[in-house]
Known about the structure:
By secondary structure, the chain is an alpha/beta fold. The chain is 44% helix and 13% strand. The protein contains 15 helices and 9 strands. The protein has a 9-stranded mixed beta sheet, with helices on both faces. The longest helix is centred in the C-terminal third of the chain and has 21 residues, at 247-267. The chain is globular.
Amino acid sequence: MALGRYRSLAKLGRSYLSPSQVGYMILYVTNRCNFRCEFCFYYAEIEKGQKPNELTLQELERLSQSTGPLVQLSLTGGEPFLRRDLDEIYSMFIRNCQARYITIPTNASLPDKMVRFLETVLPRHPDSYLRLTFSVDGIEDDHDTARSMPGSFEKIRQSYAAVSPLRKRFPNLVLDANSVFTSRSEDKLQDTLRYLAENFEFDNLSVTYARGDIRDPSLLASSEERYIQVNDYLESVRRGKEGRFLYPLWRAVRDVSRENLIRTVFHDEFVTPCVAGRKLVVVGETGEVYPCEILDRPMGNLRDHDFNLPQLMAKSENAELRRWIVESQCKCSFECALGANVVWNKSTYPRMLRSAIRNIGKD
């Protein structure tokens, strides 16, 4: 057992250190969704219908076998829990990629499916940490309106009541809530976060800046002052002391990323070179690979490359794309890319270390 854990950590080190190894994969397991959120940047894909040409379980197995070790894996959509074989996808990427940290964002509308999934995968993979993130965008009717789904806030309550007790049985489960910062939500967002802090016991509360080609572009025009106020509140609110390995460091990544977002979005500063297309990749539900969720420049489709991700990324045109990303000083508000840039740029390490020290034992 100890030898196996050592080998797993050694592969994790390779994922972090090797310049040619993807460290962070965002995998869209489906474009199907039972909600129609007003700020969703993926709405055009979601509207394509309920029978998409999704990667099959067998195709995903081949992808996982070619990918190599991953530090971070995000399984997203659409609504991930609409995929019936999500537990098998989860397990194959841990088995084949030694994925240590997995994140699944969810609208939390399917509590029974969520509980069955968690009770299956958490005991099966005790050395990997799952961060399950509830999307909460207001209280009661405000949430239902933002998510275009009556009764969806009540589903949040039901799902939280069903899932939250599992943390006592499974220390590898982290339960978070995330809210989207838009021009419509910014005035009430601090009240929303305060309500969540007082009425739930999420391990972390976070805010995502609305991004990309959303249904209502006016929602992107938001206030720096409000954004800073909201994030100052997040700094003051109680956070759970997680069992997740190196959790102060991961919280520090988020804190520094937030600082970088403010400089990028509101002051148009170039902070760090972007590692999208190199250490971070996005895999769509049909096998299309992108450097990130914002840059609409596909790198190729896995189905055309025998599901071999390194082979696809090694194409000369993708090497040119990576050079362009760095040389053009490409920048955006995509938090996942901002986080990857913190992790894989040495210039951020002093700030990250100071933040990690502040987060030690924090609750």
